[in-house]
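Hi U.,

Before I forget, here's the chain from the pilot set. I'm dumping it here mostly so it's searchable later in email.
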Amino acid sequence: MTLPAQRSSGTPTTWRPLRGFEDIYSEFDRLVQSLVGGYGNGTTWMPAADVSETDAAYVVEVELPGVRREDVNVELDGNELVVSGEIKERRREGLLRRSTRRIGQFEYRVLLPGELRTDDVEASLAHGVLTVHVPKVQATKHNKIEVKDSNGS
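Structure:
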């Protein structure tokens, strides 16, 4: 395969041996953003999260680095937990060369099985992780009933 010749416009240029890799990286980044949604291009994105279950509750941990508490909404609609909000772009000085941080609207949804104590849900944000604690309704206790002899004694 032959490559097209690049002609100089008369101005001297400096040789940059890694320029080809920068171009490949930029094209690959553009392709990935077009396939899975970009960083801050107006689309809603889903943050990474873990959902764990204990005997008493569900614990949902959502990664939200750089998010302020007032920019997060946590709602429980029936059995569906919805975490939404926005990461706002911060003011910068100077020329931004590359940005890979996610900005814009985000939303995470998870359906939790069983009966939940909706009045006792707690959420806290620390070190870029939102932790939501959703208690389960206490199941009825299982009691073993002793069977007695009914012969009159």
